[in-house]
Design a protein that fits this description.
The complex is a heterodimer of chains A (482) and B (494).
Chain A (H helix, E strand, L loop, with lengths): L6 H12 L8 H4 L12 E5 L4 H10 L5 E6 L3 H10 L4 E3 L2 H7 L5 E4 L6 H10 L3 E4 L7 H13 L4 E3 L7 H11 L6 E8 L23 H5 L25 H10 L1 H7 L6 E6 L2 E4 L2 E3 L9 E9 L2 E9 L22 E7 L3 E4 L7 E3 L1 H10 L14 H12 L11 H21 L3 E7 L2 E4 L6 E4 L4 E2 L20
Parallel strand pairs in A: 1-2, 1-4, 2-3, 4-5, 5-6, 7-12
Antiparallel strand pairs in A: 7-13, 8-11, 8-18, 9-10, 11-12, 13-14, 14-15, 16-17, 18-19
Helix pairs in contact in A: 6-7, 7-14, 8-11, 10-14
Chain B lengths: L2 H11 L11 H9 L8 H4 L12 E5 L4 H10 L5 E6 L7 H5 L6 E3 L2 H8 L5 E4 L3 H13 L3 E4 L7 H14 L3 E3 L7 H11 L6 E7 L24 H5 L26 H10 L1 H6 L7 E6 L20 E7 L9 E6 L20 E6 L3 E5 L6 E3 L7 H4 L15 H11 L10 H22 L16 E4 L4 E2 L21
Parallel strand pairs in B: 1-2, 1-4, 2-3, 4-5, 5-6, 7-10
Antiparallel strand pairs in B: 7-11, 8-9, 8-14, 9-10, 11-12, 12-13, 14-15
Helix pairs in contact in B: 7-8, 8-15, 11-15
Amino acid sequence: MIEKDNSRRDFIKKASLIAGSFYIVPRHVLGGKGFIAPSDKLNIASVGVGGKGWTDLNGAWNNGSENIMAICDVDDRSLEQAIKKFPNAKVYKDFRTMLEQEKGIDAITVSTPDHTHYVVAMAAMQAGKHVYVQKPLAHNLYEVRKMTEAAVSNKVVTQMGNQGGSGDGVRRFTEWYQAGLIGEVNRVHAWTNRPVWPQGIPTPTNKMDVPKELDWDLWLGPAKYRDYNSAYHPFDWRGWVDFGTGALGDMGCHMFDPPYKALGLGYPSEVECSMTNAWAGKFKEGYYPESFPVASMVNLKFPRAGKADLKLTWYDGGMMPERPDEIPSDIKMGDSSGGVLMVGTKGVITCGVYGSNPMLFPEDKLKEAGEKLPITIPRVVGADKEGHYQQWLQACKDGYGKHKPLSSSFDYAGPMTETVIMGNLAIRSYMVRTEKKTPVWIEKYDYPGRKKLLWDGKNMKITNFDEANAFVKPEYREGWTL
Amino acid sequence: MKTRSSILKAKKNQKTMNQDNSRRDFIKKTSLALGSFYIVPRHVLGGKGFIAPSDKLNILSIGAGGKGESDTLLAYNKGTENIVAIADVDFGRAANTLKQLPENVRKYKDWREALEKEKNNIDAVTISTPDHHHAAATLAAMELGKHVYTQKPLTHNIKEARMLTEAAEKYKVVTQMGNQGSSNDGRRVLQEWFDAGLIGTVKRVHIWTDRPVWPQGIATPMSKHEIPADFPWDLWLGPAPVRDFVPNAYHPFKWRGWWDFGTGAMGDMGCHLLDGVFKVLALTYPTEVQCSVSSIYTKDWVPDYYPDSCPPSSKVTFQYPKTTKNSSPIEIIWYDGGLKPDIPAEWGDEPLWTNGVIYEGTKGKMANELYNQNPTLLPKSRMTDSDVLKVKPKLYRIENQSAGHNYHWVKACKAGYGKLETSSPFDFAGPLTEMILMGNLAIRSYQYREGEGRAGKFPGRKKILWDGKNMNVTNFDYANQFVSRKYRDGWKLG
């Protein structure tokens, strides 16, 4: 529970009452928690303020509508510009210390590398703070499930940072589908140009000094210890299974969002994948199970009550689905970051990343109908700018249980992220190998995980390849608890 | 060599037989005297090239290292045939082959010189060079009236394949492409199943391979090196544009991954994996081809650009209209570099094969492994159904299957043009190779970039529309440069 012990609010509250504002009701009357007057500022702490974290920090600040109370990063180089812009914010390297010392924080943005999303967000939620967590929600399935549950049990306002979820595009996409313009859908394709960083590479063995600005041990957090290398920090952690979630983790939450919203998808029941081989030389296979692959394709199956199964295929590393006959040859499918293609019995819908530029095909039959279709799903104010942050900030002020539905609260973002991470579980299973008893030419290994993996979602268990279950739940380093 | 039985078998399965070549009259007469009814004097039947089975076929082997080793030795057949000469740029790599041949085999570095000097001493030629030499060497041999056995893919570009297909008919020589899996019984079983209607009409076929099994998607080496004194780099380059010699970058073997010389994963494996599909469904020219390929990042955000190198993995989709054997249009999807199709529900709880084919028909699915091996109906339990067991072998089987592929060609050469059908004659292998090279044309179009770095545009990333008869891409003219290529001075096609 949050205790609003911040006395400066009392002053404002009282002042408001005196001014006759009818909409301010003392929070003990409304019950619930976290209610903050619309005219008051949220106290924000941002964990991870470089890269995407810089955007999140500024989004939460909302041009001064909110108060940046604390900033936290393991790397002074990332903190530098944040300190300059927010000189009054308290500065921390360790989020645990920050949470201990800054009791006045209302809400936290979490924009660390994927492997520390969970520990930061979980600690924040348990301390009753609202959270905005970058996508993917967490690094592995178990963490995602726990975070989904924790949002409810701690009664906090949550949003995942897939900002396209607040866009008009995904709403138009959904309206078209739900109006039946393309008929029944049981096939969806989603793709991305990621990784745009090295993958399918050997683990570095060269020694490097830890930069003096960086607390490497804290950066590692719960992950297994390894020596510092610039191949991990900054940014390229995305390609390493211990820290990142590959192309799928980076973009899956953006690309799965339109079909998730339109079709109301939940947990998948089956997953399988294939990926580009790595070759270290002629007939010499490169085996780099710590690095996500150069390119992969993942198939996910979703059972649906009273309907045929839905199959969703993911392509990354430059791979793409076939162009359906409905889309003319000279029209680019998706955009430079990727796209979504939903195939129906009467036509197809495509869009780019963040649900942008949704289009209906065949154009001669559906374009006009699409344009004429009335808007039925409420749009997020400021969707093209900072609406995704503002929606969350407003919800934090409205308080848990009272706020309007969010575009990507954890009850929605959790199952979607689990689906994304299921793909990674298939990818890691695909790399499991055992030595062949009798090698055949260059084929020296068996790969028993290269099959359709069956998922018992409720119990978070792969039922036909037990080795895969090692990837469901991580082992934490000493000093860190799951 | 089981002369009589194999010829009888051939006779049973071929429409006619005929023979030629007067130096073999002796054998002919002997046969006639023994009462063999199937030998008819050549002047009656016409045609050319008949050589008595007991006589030796005289062969020039072009390229005798690597794959050329088995091609040469299987044609030699432990001495039942005669390897007259070998042409190779690297006799070091051919040493193991030479060890197994008589010492008097003549050696040439330049296959052009070998053909010129040996043209009166040879009946047939095997060609097992890197891909970029296939067409010129094969065509030159055919023009001299020699039978030819050429490694897959038949040629390096589409125009060359078309020319070889036409030349085989024009010069009336026995031809075989080296996709030995075409001689496996599996292809015939698949065809018999399909013809019996077991899987209905085919809508889609998936084909996948783990190739390349060498690095692709890599930068062109720029380091400067001395050309070894005993290595004729210029000859190795042949008709291809000149580039600097770099040890182990191109020769041996790695030429496969460079567009100037090789044909990538698809060129290496396509002729094996698509062989059955092409035959069973009677495919010809695709009408549309589209693809995507994996990208490479050695740095953040800016993709590496290696248009010289074939990609690490690709997926290519061919559209075919209905064929003489299949009443619906067909989509054929190729996956390489380790990528694979979705595992069909009928597959069961196990990984897909490393290389394979799955046919999706209106009534069922069938699959096979590399080289048309292990033909399988899905689910596997289907294999014991009574209607399946009722399908009896009706197509001609090749003696020793794929291991007999090379020697079957030898037998066909001896029988003479038009007498004994080979598994992969150029009228079949030419169009098959063209299909594969269309896949590569789509990949090269996909790779083509205008502008630099992140600002680069990729105008060829669309569905390529193909006028097969006229060998013309109709909606992306840039791609037409990949249909053929200009040969370097001193090298010609025919």
